[in-house]
Amino acid sequence: MVPDSFTGYFAGSMGAAGALIGLLFVAVSLRPESVLGAGASAKAQAVAGSAFTALLNSFFVSLIALIPGTNLGYTAAVMALISLFSTVRLHRGLGKGELAVRQLSLALAAFLTQFVVGALLAARPGDQSLVYVIAYLLVASFAAALGRAWSLMQGRNAPQVPETQLQET
Questions:
Q1: Angle between helices 42-65 and 128-154 in degrees, nearest 10
Q2: Total domains present in the chain
Q3: pTM of the complete model beyond 0.90
Q4: CA angle 61, 63, 66 (to 5 degrees)
Q5: What is the pLDDT of residues 54-109, one digit of tens each?
Q6: Are 25 and 55 in contact (CB under 8 A)?
Q7: Does residue 102 form part of some domain?
Q8: Cα(46)–Cα(64) distance, rounded to whole angstroms?
Q9: Does residue 169 form part of some domain?
Q10: What is the Cα–Cα distance from 89 to 122, expressed in whole angstroms?
């Protein structure tokens, strides 16, 4: 059971996640060939997918938390499993680069923590301290997603076009 004192937080979190998902779509649409196209790098696809996964997770956890009388633990645990699966699938094709390993490690740690806390909250629905942990995990999820989206906007994950090709076009 989510305490009433969290209603404003989860409403704001849900709204922010929805808006940021929309902005992520805009960011990807500005560079579709470098993120989703046939020539897109696996790194760019993983970064975009990871940002989307984190925001989607935050959106649905926050949305379900607003339903009166619901046990947020089940939603947090299920969304953590979905996010874990998506994260592993997205990073499977990446090399062992420092950024890829760091992103994967942080995402796995966050979603595994969310799963454990969600399972504990499902078993102890009145434990308000676990709702706080989930709320702070959402903040971390937003921070990670924004960092990934920013790197997409900067084009750091796009394949580099040789100077000679730029001059020919």
A1: 150
A2: 1
A3: no
A4: 110
A5: 999 999 999 999 999 999 999 999 999 999 999 888 877 666 665 567 777 888 89
A6: no
A7: yes
A8: 27
A9: no
A10: 27
Q: Take residue 157 and report the two structure tokens written for it.
A: 């994950």
Cβ contact 30:153 at 8 Å: yes
67 or 30, higher pLDDT: 67
Q: Convert 24-90 into a string of H (helix), E (strand) and C (coil).
A: HHHHHHHCHHHHCCCCCCHHHHHHHHHHHHHHHHHHHHHHHHCCCCCCHHHHHHHHHHHHHHHHHHH
Amino acid letter, residue 7: T
Residue reference for tokens 């994260």: 87
Q: Residue 125 domain-assigned?
A: yes
Q: Is 152 helix (H, G, I), strand (E, B) or coil?
A: helix
CA–CA separation, 89 vs 94, rounded Å?
10
CA–CA dist 83, 4 (Å, integer): 27
Residue 166 domain flag: no
Region of 40 please: left (phi>0), alpha (psi -120 to 50) or beta. beta
Closest alpha carbon to 62 in 8, 116, 20: 8
